[in-house]
């Protein structure tokens, strides 16, 4: 059984080493008592175990505190040292042995070499003494010398080694004796300390050694880092020193420069000072003079300023007075001119009115066609807004139209500017409607280019009706008269592509069968045309609605809803005087002609082109009729178209005829507008003869010629059978109205030699003139209507 104590484990973490890789004694105080106690316990356990096996050999060792541990550690150190020394002794022994062997080898080599040399020398001495061999011999001798020197060195070394060897041998012997003592006890007492056996401590030593090695390595690293840091610190320190040195140098340099500059400045100042004193003196002297001069100038200027200011005040007051005076004079002059102007305008207006009255009288006497002109405002189809027409401020019968920088002036009975309202237009038409009530034949037709506003003027819109509806409203208003009772019948037809269509007839198939016929006793009529008796405005509106629905219209380039036919609203007004029994037979024909159009401009084709051709042809026939009337031709070509044939009665002199010219205000339609205006101008100069009033009293048949529509009134302007002539004054002393009468039965048309028909006496399409074979009224199921048969 092995009685040697077992190794004692010591917690490595509690062992502290100083920089010299030795156990720091001071630090052992840091070892915890717990570790000491555990170490002690382990040590005691080993000793107890040894005692159990051989109780007499094992001495008792007490480790009670840190000092015991220190002792133990010292013992370990000693053992470690001795072991190292033992190892060194062995190494030395080994090295000595190796040196000895080498020495032996060298000795042998030397002896061999010497033998070889001696052999060679003898050979040389025996053989030829050739000079060639002297060099190798010399070399050999040198080598020998070297070898001898080496030999000497080796001898010295050998002696040294032998000496060392002897010393080591002695040490070895001593160690061996010590070692043998230790092994016999199981512990070694070394230098008075008890040391556990070498075998037990070897492991500890190895561990300690590895710790030392690690620590050493770490320390080396730390040392290295420290050195590096030292180096860096020293480097930066040296840099800093260099910089500081440089800075101090710069600072000194600048300081020197500054001092130099200061010296220079002081010197310069010293030089300038007397000069400045002199300058100051001069300036103070000059200043005094200048200030005085400036002061004087300023005073002068102030005086001048005051003078000028006074002058200006005087001048401005003078100017003000003068201006006031002049303004007063100008105002006086202007007011004088204004008064004169007003007077002139007044006179001129009176003259214009007078001229108009005379013109009206003349128109009445001559039976001229009255011509109004209305300019519609620009519409979206015009694609432009600039107007080429202008008006006269004081004369409402003048219109100017400019084409290609040339302005033409036209005179008409009345010109309506673009902003004229429907009611303003009707105000000028009212007198003619009145004439129709009084028993005259009246025809109003609108003429003009397509899209120029004919339908707008005649029909108008629902919210703003035109001449047609306003005329009928007016008729109904007048029909309220207590003395006269009126019966009104209405027919509506259109001339479409030279065919007559009844617009009040719902049966479309019959439309083409209508024809204009001449009565044997004279006068025209349309057999089969529905005549509806109207008693209220609602019935009239119904008629208009039916007519509008049945009328042919279409969209063209010029008009969103272009009339493709001539539309005629025929009204017969029979008035009966409830006191005298006298009867009047008036007629009112309201015609909305289709518009003339340039097919190249409207770009119509197919049906629209056919319509346009018929429209243009019939309008051209109307132009021919107007020309013939104007030029008093013996033949007037009424029968060339249905339109002129139908309008014959209105144009042959027994009617009051009003032509409303419609024009567009824009440049692109200027040629058509001028054409329309020229047409109207020709129409104005056509003399038709005075219109006659159609009335009967049962005994005598009087026909009166009107003297200006404005003076009409029921029963106010005829004297039954007795009046030959009379002059009445109306609208001022200058205006004298002429009354004329004709004997019973004298046909108005008989006065006109240039009429185509009628040949026999009689009047036109009026109920009063109906002969026994003339159509009678028949009841129409839906309405109170008549159909001429
Ligand atoms: N005085 C006016 N004020 C406002 N709009 C107007 C006036 N006159 C005409 N117009 C407008 O101009 C357009 C063309 O007018 P309208 O249909 O009456 O022309 P027209 O001469 O009857 O044309 P067409 O011969 O092709 O039937 C319509 O849209 C109508 O409302």
TrEMBL record:
Single GO MF annotation: microtubule binding
Stretches of the chain forming a coiled coil according to its record: 69-164, 205-239
Transmembrane segments: none
Gene3D superfamilies documented for this protein: Kinesin motor domain (3.40.850.10)
Keywords: ATP-binding, Coiled coil, Cytoplasm, Cytoskeleton, Microtubule, Motor protein, Nucleotide-binding
Name of protein: Kinesin-like protein
GO BP: any one term: microtubule-based movement
Residue positions binding ATP: 448-455
Localization: Cytoplasm, Cytoskeleton
Biased composition (Polar residues): 760-782
Family designation: Belongs to the TRAFAC class myosin-kinesin ATPase superfamily. Kinesin family.
Species annotation: Biomphalaria glabrata
One Pfam entry name: Kinesin
SUPFAM superfamilies: P-loop containing nucleoside triphosphate hydrolases (SSF52540)
Assigned GO CC terms: microtubule
Kinesin motor domain sequence ranges: 368-686
Sequence segments annotated as region (Disordered): 744-789
Alphabetized InterPro entries for the sequence: Kinesin-like_fam (IPR027640), Kinesin_motor_CS (IPR019821), Kinesin_motor_dom (IPR001752), Kinesin_motor_dom_sf (IPR036961), P-loop_NTPase (IPR027417)
